[in-house]
Amino acid sequence: MIIVGRYADRFGKLRVVLTATVGATVFFCLLPLARSAPPLLALQLLNAAWTAVALSIPVAMVQQEAPAGAGAASALYSSAFMFAVLLAGAITGVTATAIGFGNVFWVCAAFSVISGGLLLARAAWTPHETSTSR
Predict the structure, then answer these.
(1) pLDDT for residue 8 is more than 90
(2) pLDDT in tens, 89-118
(3) SS3 of 127, please?
(4) Choosing a second label site near 58 at 20 to 30 A (CA), which of 81, 90, 118, 119?
């Protein structure tokens, strides 16, 4: 996560998070295709990379939006994250019941693409982040 923070400062937080959404999409698309332990273990490196970004950089982005209320931004992010975990569990259960467990990963890939699209839409509506901004 420390390395991710350095890259975020160098290349821009939004670019790093968008790259993570691409990594998550690739991970979820390849996961149902892996049929043995070695490919599954190799995919865990990609999983770790996008997860490290998802657990660290977005909270800094939320805090950057409200610099006077860093504690409030942190609490908002934590609460939203826990709600997302709860919602993801429900969506996983419904999806697995409706179309099978193996197809859950395709739905995850679709949600990763949607999240990347929403980040791009947000970037289009707000001032652009420079690569050196913190």
Answers:
(1) no
(2) 999 999 999 999 989 999 999 999 999 999
(3) coil
(4) 90
Dihedral sign (CA 106, 108, 111, 115): negative
φ, ψ (nearest 5 deg) of residue 55: -95, -5
Look up residue 70 and give its amino acid: A
3-state secondary structure of 57: helix
Give the single-character DSSP code of 131. Answer: T
Query: Could you tell me the two tokens for 76?
Result: 């908002």
At how many degrees (to 10) do helices 13-30 and 57-65 cross? 140
Residue of 124, 76, 84 lying closest to 108 (CA atoms):
84
Do the beta carbons of residue 129 and residue 55 sit within 8 Å?
no
CA separation for the pair 36, 21 (Å, rounded): 25
Cβ atoms of 96 and 104 within 8 Å: the answer is: yes
CB 93 within 8 A of CB 2: no
Query: What number of other Cβ atoms are within 10 A of residue 35's Cβ?
Result: 7
